[in-house]
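Re: the request from the purification team.
They wanted to know what the chain is likely to look like in 3D before they choose a buffer screen. I agreed to run a prediction and write the result into the notebook, where they can find it.
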Amino acid sequence: FLARALVTTEQRTNHQFGVVTLPSLNGKSIEKVGLELGKGWRIGRKGHDDGVLLIVAPNERKVRIEVGSGLEKALTDAEAAAIIQRRILPRFSRGAMAAGIYDGSAGIIREIDTLGAMS
């Protein structure tokens, strides 16, 4: 379901959204890993920087939503933090990682769909 939702979102909005679960951050901060992945995978359209990446590192108990500058109006740092705190972490704490990722992704999609209608 999640893969289909990501593809549908990109088709509808032109914004790219990826989800990655990492076995380890290899001693790096999740922020650094997020930037490296976003640039390496080229998430978001060239010249628009309109990609978003949900990063989960369960062994280090870290979650991050990395947002390209072209989506910062649609998905602010405060909104990303709220998605993590309200949708993802409560499910993770109950041992429902897949549900947390899916629900967090749904929250991200809802936010970027708002801007998608305008771009």
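For the purification team: The beta strands are 16-21, 51-57, 62-67.
Please add any questions underneath this entry.
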